[in-house]
């Protein structure tokens, strides 16, 4: 099996990019229009920059990476679960919860693009047909 990349919805990324640019624009306008430099405006610019940075990170690394050996969340401090350690897989309100002895990874399907959701459902179907221990 080749690496499977589960992607975010494009709409979600565009909304976050717009909000980040809006924060930056509001902070820059506040700095430009006032006489003195206020920390609150610099913080607004920093928050906008962080949000735009998160969008760039999400576009580059996407939501999940699945291989034959592991499932990894591509967040800054995302979880990585080895396939051999999976003891239970369950579907809760459309989301998937994958449990090991010491970790739980919840895959939120409402964040996933339609084409990646089809790939995820197929992968989960093959994962559930393997020998999986239940609690």
From TrEMBL:
Keywords: Membrane, Transmembrane, Transmembrane helix. The keyword Membrane applies. The chain crosses the membrane at residues 14-32, 38-59. It comes from the Bacteria. This is Uncharacterized protein. It comes from Bizionia argentinensis JUB59.
